[in-house]
Amino acid sequence: MTTYADRYPRRLRLRKNLVSEIRPLDVAEVRDLMTLYHALDETAVSRLPHDVQSPNFPKMLRRQLEDERLHILVTWHEDDIIGSLSLYRSESIWARHIGNVVFVSHPEYRRFGIATILFEEILPIAQSLGIEKIYAELTRDHIDGIKMLKHFGFSREATLKDHIKDRYGRYRDMRIYSLDTEGAHKAMEELIAGFSDYSG
């Protein structure tokens, strides 16, 4: 993460005058991230691609962060992480230019613009890693997530039928939305026009 460490921490005033700090997640802060995951309701947890309730999940996160297979930007408000955006780089030799993103926000801090700023901040990080396209995987009932991605310029690239099997054994279609990182900054500039660096 040395390629972009000099940019952070970055303090911002988001919507509703929420003062926050954006920075990459340190391995030592995985426990704080788990506090965010534990604040999610069952529906939100079921929409995540990983079993965040597994006792082995924190260990896996630490290992991936240390190996730089995973990069996570987090938003702090005071002493709590209130949002995170994870970037998983493909390990396939054919798809080293592709990255998968997963966004999570605290239920009490939605519609503050956390997703907007994290997606804007992740773009130069992705490009520094040689990632040309980022994608996200959602189900049809993830309505808010789909609206958010479309708002950021993502477009639906594929639908994989019965590709997801939830914990209750139900099959669901997976929708894949993607965004080219080159030129995506312009699309994001208007969305973050109301945010400002905070030095108070």
**Structural class computed from helices and strand pairing:** alpha+beta
Q: Under CATH, the topology is which?
A: Aminopeptidase
Please identify, by name, the CATH architecture.
3-Layer(aba) Sandwich
**How does the major sheet shape up?**
9 strands, mixed
* Distance between the amino and carboxyl termini: 27 Å
CATH superfamily: Gcn5-related N-acetyltransferase (GNAT)
Q: How much β-strand is present in the residues?
A: 25-35%
Radius of gyration from the CA trace? Answer: 16 Å
Helix and strand element order: EEHHHEEEHEHEEHE
| Strand line-up in the sheet with most strands | 7-8-6-5-4-3-2-1-9
Q: What shape does the CA trace take?
A: globular
Number of strands: 9
How many structural units, i.e. domains?
A: 1
Low-confidence stretches: none
Give the oligomeric state of the chains in this entry, treating copies of one chain as homo and distinct chains as hetero: single chain
- The average pLDDT score comes to 89
By CATH reckoning, the class would read Alpha Beta
Number of discrete helical segments: 6
Helix proportion range: 25-40%
